[in-house]
Amino acid sequence: MQFTSKFWRKFHDELGTQLTFSTTFHPQTDGQSERTIKVLEEMLRSCVIDIGGYWDKFLPLCEFFYDNSYYSSIDMAPFEELYGRGCRSPIRWFEAGDEKSLGVDLVKDAQD
């Protein structure tokens, strides 16, 4: 028998989310975790094969790209979901059709 406090049941009911359980130390039972691990694994493998080197050096880069990639399940990037805005990175500064900022304006845009 599983123990779940009334608080957590009510909390998820109010949010309109479903409380699901997975076995401890068994992420295979959690489809979302399994998918995330697979995506990160593929990113790291690509970095190591294409660029060479050790996977741990590429982990921050893979995390950045994962957090800023579009996911249809949430209809946005995880970064945008968490912070309420898109990531202000050099990649986003130079999207097609955008006006290019330079010098002080570039720094000011990044801080806004």
TrEMBL record:
Name of the featured protein: Integrase catalytic domain-containing protein
The GO terms describing molecular function are: nucleic acid binding
Specify the superkingdom: Eukaryota
Q: Name one GO biological process term.
A: DNA integration
Quote the PROSITE patterns the UniProt record gives: INTEGRASE (PS50994)
Gene3D superfamilies this protein is in? Ribonuclease H-like superfamily/Ribonuclease H (3.30.420.10)
Species of the source: Solanum verrucosum
Question: According to the entry, what is the taxonomic lineage of the organism?
Answer: Eukaryota, Viridiplantae, Streptophyta, Embryophyta, Tracheophyta
Domain named Integrase catalytic: which ranges? 1-86
Annotated InterPro entries: Integrase_cat-core, RNaseH-like_sf, RNaseH_sf
